[in-house]
Amino acid sequence: MEVLELKAQHDALQRIVTTRDPVKALSEYIWNALDADATLVEVIFERNVLGGIESIVVRDNGTGITRNRVREDFENFGASWKRTVQSTQQKRVLHGKEGQGRLRFFSLAERASWTSVYREGDHLKKLSVKISAGLLNRSEIDDLELGVSDTATGTVVELYPLKESFDWVAGEKGRTEFTAIFAPYLLHYPDVAILNDGIPLNPSANIAFAHDFPKQVVIGPTRTIRDISLKVIEWNGSVGGRKIHFGGEDGVVLGAIPANVTAPGFEFSAYAYAPFFQEISDANLLEFDGLNDPDFTAVLEKLREDLGDHFRTRQTEKSKELIQELIEAGVYPYQGDPKDAVEKREREVFAIATHAVSSYSREFKRADDPIRKITLGLLKEAIKHNPESIHNILHHVFNLPKSKQDEFSGLLERTNLGNIISASHLIAERIVALEVLKGIVFNPKHRKTVKERGQLDILIQANTWIFGENFHITLAEAGLSKIMQRVAEELGSKNGKGKVRKPDGSVGRADTFLGRLVPHQNQMHREFLLVELKRPSLTIGRKESDQLEDYVNAIRSQPDFINTSTFWNFYLITGEYDDAVRERITQKDRAEGILLEKETHVVWVKTWSEIIRECEARLHFIANKLQIEVTDEEIERRIKDLKSSIVGGGGSDISGESDDA
Question: Which InterPro entries match (predicted)?
Answer without folding.
Answer: HATPase_C_sf
